[in-house]
Write a structure and sequence with these properties.
single chain; mainly alpha; two-stranded antiparallel sheet; 2 strands; globular
């Protein structure tokens, strides 16, 4: 009892104690004012919101709306998903198909130099095959993108291989030389289509510099094997049947036709590499109705024009060396056709090793600086081929020129693909490839005309001049920037 009395001294109990209440609710200054009923009525409701209120007066989300609801991306920002060698799964087969196609192209491009001494016609006439091949490239350039949009990539690639197949079938029967010239037009037309499509596909994969090195390295492998087989055929008792070499090209083309059709058949469904459209951009803007406008945009693009001139000079020098170095060694170094015919194989072996071994260091050093250094080295070794009167020394120097030229093409294509807006990328790269092929025709054709009058030594000043054009156009290219469109 005493304890209770002492406790009462501290606690007062009574009916008049006031009721304790909490502070009034206050909105923070940063909190927006509540919308009134007029503002609520003006809201645009998502089709996935159930506007029927439940018993508590709240509105819910439909089950389908709940499944697809996601955090919205910032307005105007494009998130690009880049394909790789492994994703989607079919890409590994598509990369192999592209490499086999490039291998077949190398088999074709490397053999004219080994076969020219066996045509038994003048240099000016024999060089018409280069012009015919380039004409096919030029005609294909405006139509490649439209063909792909209308038919799909698989069917377009199959058409390109069918065109090459028709050309090889005609050459196989050793027809008169005008028919051979016409056949190279069909081969060039098909090659231009598959090269443009595969260049764009490989350029848009992850680690594109290394992938382009693999792709164009396959071209070098074909370029190395081709002269070895062609020289063996043309230098022995079956020299009159030099066209039998094209049995190999024919077989590879048949394999490529079937394999490319299978690998790329569902390519359009794997659209992970295509960025989403910007808000307000209509899908119809990507349809064939504006392909003509895309070509005009490409031709007004600085990168397209400088890239075309660069590849024009590059392929002009590459094909000129491949096509005329054997004739130079026979005329000025007293080489025997059965022996110096293999120098072309050494040149293409250098290109192959360069593309496989040097493209990765190029990416680490920086493609812009790396290309400059490679072109300077190519000029030095081309001078050695011209000035050193020794067959063995010239053969080694030619191989080193090939080694230095090898990584330039994939590095350049990587830089061009980074600089070009995506909507004109296919058209621009097709134009660049076509112009490059015209360089691969005009330069050896000009060399043949001059060699007819002056001698095959003109090969070297022509190539050195083309190397200098490459350096000049490379310095004029815009700086590589991250593509945001």
């Amino acid at each position: 009892m005493a304890s209770r009395a002492s406790l009462g001294a501290f606690i007062e109990l009574g009916p008049n104690i006031p009721k304790i209440t909490g502070p009034p609710p206050v909105l923070p200054k940063s909190y927006p004012s509540l919308p009134d009923t007029v503002a609520l009525d003006q809201l645009t409701w998502s089709p996935h919101v159930d506007r029927r209120a439940d018993s508590s007066g709240r509105m819910g989300i439909t089950p389908s709306g709940l499944e697809i609801s996601q955090t919205p991306s910032p307005r105007g920002e494009v998130v690009e998903v880049v394909q790789s060698f492994f994703s989607p799964r079919m890409n590994r087969y598509r990369v192999v198909s592209a490499c086999l196609t490039c291998f077949g192209n190398g088999l074709n491009d490397s053999v004219p130099g080994a076969l020219i001494p066996h045509y038994n016609i003048g240099y000016a006439i024999v060089s018409l095959i280069f012009v015919s091949n380039a004409l096919g490239f030029l005609i294909a350039a405006p139509f490649t993108e439209a063909l792909q949009v209308r038919l799909g990539r698989a069917k377009t690639l199959m058409i390109s291989e069918a065109l090459m197949l028709a050309g090889y079938l005609a050459i196989l029967f050793t027809p008169p030389y005008p028919v051979v010239v016409a056949s190279f037009f069909s081969v060039g037309l098909g090659m231009a289509i598959n090269l443009a499509l595969n260049n764009v596909f490989i350029s848009n994969l992850a680690s594109s510099t290394s992938m382009l090195g693999l792709f164009h390295g396959s071209y070098g492998i074909g370029g190395t094997i081709g002269p070895l087989i062609a020289t063996a055929i043309a230098s022995h008792s079956i020299a009159a049947h030099w066209s039998r070499y094209y049995l190999l090209s024919l077989a590879v083309t048949i394999v490529n036709l079937l394999f490319a059709g299978w690998a790329f058949w569902d390519y359009e469904r794997d659209a992970a590499s295509v960025p989403p459209l910007l808000p307000g951009q209509r899908g119809s803007e990507q349809r064939p109705a504006i392909k003509g406008r895309l070509l005009r945009q490409s031709l007004r693009n600085k990168t397209t024009l400088l890239g075309a001139l660069f590849i024009f000079a590059y392929q002009g020098a590459e094909v000129s060396i491949s096509g005329w170095i054997i004739s130079f060694l026979i005329s000025y170094r007293a080489g025997k056709p059965a022996e110096v015919g293999y120098v072309t194989a050494g040149f293409w072996a250098g290109i192959t090793i360069g593309r496989f071994a040097l493209t990765h260091p190029a990416h680490r050093v920086g493609e812009r600086l790396f290309v400059v250094l490679m072109v300077v080295g190519a000029i030095i070794f081309e001078l050695l081929v011209w000035l050193v009167p020794n067959v063995v020394g010239d053969a080694v120097a030619v191989s080193l020129v090939g080694l230095l030229l090898g990584p330039i093409y994939p590095c350049a294509m990587h830089v061009f693909s980074r600089l070009l807006p995506r909507q004109i990328q296919m058209t621009s790269l097709s134009f660049i490839s076509a112009t490059g092929s015209s360089g691969g025709a005009l330069a050896p054709f000009t060399t043949g005309i001059m060699a007819q009058a002056l001698g095959t030594f003109v090969l070297h000043p022509v190539c050195i001049g083309l190397f200098m054009v490459m350096e000049g156009t490379w310095f004029l290219l815009p700086k590589v920037r991250k593509r945001t469109e």
